[in-house]
Every structure is written in C-alpha cells, then in structure tokens.
Design brief:
The chain has 445 residues and is of the alpha/beta class. It has helices at residues 10-17, 26-34, 52-63, 84-87, 98-105, 109-125, 135-146, 159-163, 167-181, 186-189, 232-255, 275-300, 319-326, 335-338, 371-388, 391-398, 400-403, 413-427, 432-444; strands spanning 41-45, 92-97, 150-155, 190-197, 203-204, 207-208, 214-217, 260-265, 268-274, 302-303, 330-331, 345-348, 363-367, 407-412. It starts with 9 loop residues before the first helix and ends with a helix.
Length: 445
C-alpha cells in the first residue's frame, strides 16, 4: 500500500465513519460501465465543496489493489450491482492531488509528481523498469510486467493552470497529462481516468490536449448529478439527523446549565459562563444552518415546466398536474426565471418524419454520432425504464443498435450558439461561470 501508487482506503474510511455520511457509491456503478471502454476518461468540473475529493477517495478505496475494501463497502448501494465484485480492488491506482504538489514545489511540480510516483513504483518493481523514460512508457512497462491496467485519479488537475503564470510550465503540464491520458501507451494501460477541477479542459495551441474526456459540469452533469451535493431525499435525511444532534445539544445544555466554565479573553480569565451556555450556542448555530438549507431547498422545489421560453404560454397547460406528478412542492410562477435555460432533446423518429414537424428556424436536428451522445441517450433511457418500468424503453435497450439510427438530437439554434461560444471562452482559460457571462454578451452583439 502506497500514498500515490495503490493507496489504501483510509480517506474513505474516515468519510464513511463520519456522523453525517451520505452514500454516493452509485457513482461507482457508472464508472464500472465506462471502465476499459473508449469512454473511460471522466472530468468533473464543479465548484468547491461539492464532494469531488470525497468521491476520489471512494474511487481509491474501490479500485485500488493496495487495500481490501470488501467490509468497507458491505452495506453500500454499490454492493447490490452486478459489476461490484468484478472490479473491487482489481486495479493499479495512481492518485495525485496536484494542489498539494503545487503548494510545495511550484515550478518543479511536474518533476516532483513523477519523482514521488516513481519512488513508490521502485518499492514494488525495483530495477525491472527504466525510470529515465517518459511516464507513459514507465506505466506501460508496469502494465507489461503485471498485466493489470491503471485507474488514474487526479484531484485539482487545473491547479497549475489556475495559479501558474508561466506559460511554458502550463504547456509542459498539459503535455504531461497528454502522456497519461492520450498517448499511444495509455490506449493499453489506462482502464479509467477520473480528474476533478474547476476549469474546463484546456488546449495546447490549436490541439486539444484532453478532448477525449467526457466533462461533467455544474450545468451539464445529468448521470452524475445525484452523486455530488445533496439530492432531495438526502437533504431530508440530513435535516432529520441534524435534528437528533440539535435535541442532544439542547438536552446537554439543560443538564449542565449550572456547571460553570470560565471565559478567557487574551489568555486572561474574563466573564464566567457555563457548559450549558456553550451546548445551547452550538444548538442555535445548527438552527441557522437549517434555515439556510431550508431556503435553498424551497427554491429548488419549484416546478419550471410550462414557462415556455420565459414568456409564459397562452395554451391551457395544467402546470398543477405536472407539479403533482413530478413531486414538486409548488410552481415556479416567475416564467422569466424558470425559462432562463435551454436544453437538448433526443427524439425517437420511427417514421422518419420529424423534419416535417420541427420549426427549422428555431431548432437543428442531427443524427446521433458522438460516443458521448450515444452514452448519454442510453443512460437516459435506462433511467426512464428504472423509474417507469416502460416496456417500450426495455425494448429499445434490448435492441439499442437497431433503434439508435432512429433517434434524432434536437437543439435550439440560440442554445447551440451559446454552447459553442461558452466552449470558445473556456478554451481561452475562463472559468465556467466567466465563460457563460462572456458568451452571453458576445451573442448580444
């Protein structure tokens, strides 16, 4: 068991033993569907505090040969999945937190990352490998010796780009990532890549360094949405657990209200208080947290359907019906706010007459050829079947190759232009939020 090569499951063990723990192991089921396929490179570009690092530790614990995690996952959601045993602790794992290396080594970050990985590889493989070669060749040698492919996890992958003003360093760093994820050797030794960060995928000059990654952002995360942050059911569970803690603190506050505790100011004894006061204070702080959580929950629990393009609709739509069917608490009555989004639709065009029913001045229609669109479509149908038990959906999944050419991808022109503009802004190095703002103003001109 190493730190960077085949790490243990200590990080995930601590998370799982925490008082407030939410089971997100369903993410592993998705990763098991893409591992050792052409869609095996995953990038999660989210803001901080959305559980990206927690997920990385969980992935370590599941795939790494440096530990036995069977007991750790025994009561988790993933255990019930068919793929669970096939991949548990079966891979060579490399896990790098780039921000830690950047803080310590700055301009030498690439050399030091390689040095630490090689030091741990030497402990296992000794002089069987020529460590003077580029890292892709070294990992290929490990694969040739062991016959075991790699799962590579990079946390804060964009740290060098966000903090480094040295263009030469950034260029070298992106080339380093290219060796890990797009080299000829990686096509053999790489089973799965999972990188996290804030920025979108960067480019080296005119050649995209990591365009083989499927990127999941705050705005486009679909299959992975429920594995970051908290879902509706998880929020309810969290509030219930916080209430238990609140009641305990209140009980302790009452029990110890007469037990004095000296207060200190600048190391000097000051006003006296009590243990009860402090227990009560933390209980009240939890109340403030729950007020903010409840406010966010209420805003998210509004049904936007029926708002049309932000202007409302004159059609007699039964918005209350969809609100009840989908389980929203209420309507989003502000049609402008509700309609400030766009989207892509996948339509089953069995009669090949969809073109006669679409407004070509407003939307474009495409064949589904991208491997990521194919994967997204299949995942959406699987979710639909899981929630509705649709017989039609089951038939499509059983004969997916036959049905795929019958699907069309529909996207509004304005939305498509915005997406292209956002990508262009992100390629210039802007954050996702900045790119959206700049793209908005660019499209207004």
């Amino acid at each position: 068991m190493g730190i960077y090569f085949n790490p243990g499951n200590g990080s995930f063990t601590k998370d799982k033993n925490s008082q407030l723990y939410i089971d997100k192991t369903g993410l592993i089921e998705y990763l098991n569907r893409v591992i050792c396929t052409n869609a095996n490179c995953i990038s999660v570009s989210h803001a901080r505090r959305f559980g990206k690092s927690h997920a990385a530790g969980m992935i370590d614990a599941y795939y790494s040969r440096g530990c036995d995690s069977s007991e750790l996952f025994a009561d988790s959601e993933i255990v019930a999945k068919d793929s669970y045993s096939a991949h548990l602790n079966k891979y060579n794992v490399i896990h790098i937190d780039v921000s830690s290396f950047w803080d310590a080594y700055k301009d030498n970050v690439i050399e030091k990352i390689q040095e630490y990985i090689y030091d741990e590889l030497k402990q296992v493989y000794g002089d069987q490998i020529d460590y003077t070669k580029m890292i892709s060749a070294v990992l290929m040698s490990v694969y040739n010796i062991s016959g075991i492919p790699f799962v590579i996890i990079i946390d804060e992958w964009d740290c060098v780009i966000r903090n480094g003003g040295n263009k030469t360093l950034v260029h070298s760093y992106l080339q380093f990532l290219h060796l890990l994820f797009k080299s000829e050797e990686s096509k053999t030794f790489l089973a799965l890549a999972y990188i996290t960060g804030i920025l979108p995928i960067k480019k080296i000059k005119d050649e995209s360094a990591l365009n083989n990654f499927r990127e999941f952002t705050m705005l486009k995360s679909k299959q992975l949405t429920r594995y970051f942050g908290f879902t509706e059911d998880e929020v309810k569970k969290l509030k219930s657990e916080v209430l238990e803690l609140f009641n305990l603190l209140q009980e302790l506050s009452e029990r110890y209200k007469d037990i004095l505790l000296p207060g200190y100011t600048h190391t000097q004894i000051a006003m006296p208080s009590s243990f009860g006061l402090w227990f009560g204070a933390y209980a009240e702080a939890l109340t403030d947290d729950m007020i903010m959580l409840s406010a966010a929950y209420r805003i998210a629990d509004e049904n936007p359907l029926g708002s049309a393009a932000g202007y409302g609709s004159s059609f007699p739509l039964d918005r209350d019906l969809t609100t009840n069917i989908l389980g929203f608490d209420t309507l989003n009555y502000n049609s402008v706010a509700a309609g400030m989004s766009g989207g892509i639709a996948y339509v089953l065009d069995e009669k090949n007459d969809l073109y006669t029913k679409t407004n070509k001045d407003m939307v474009s229609s495409y064949e589904i050829t991208s491997k990521y669109d194919v994967l997204e479509l299949k995942d959406l149908i699987k979710e639909h079947v899981a929630y509705t038990n649709s017989e039609k959906g089951k038939m499509i999944l059983d004969n997916f190759g036959e049905y795929l050419p019958k699907f069309k991808k529909i996207i509004p022109h304005d939305y498509e232009e915005m997406q292209k503009a956002i990508v262009q802004m992100e390629e210039k190095g802007l954050s996702a939020e900045q790119a959206q703002i700049e793209a908005f103003y660019a499209n207004k001109k």
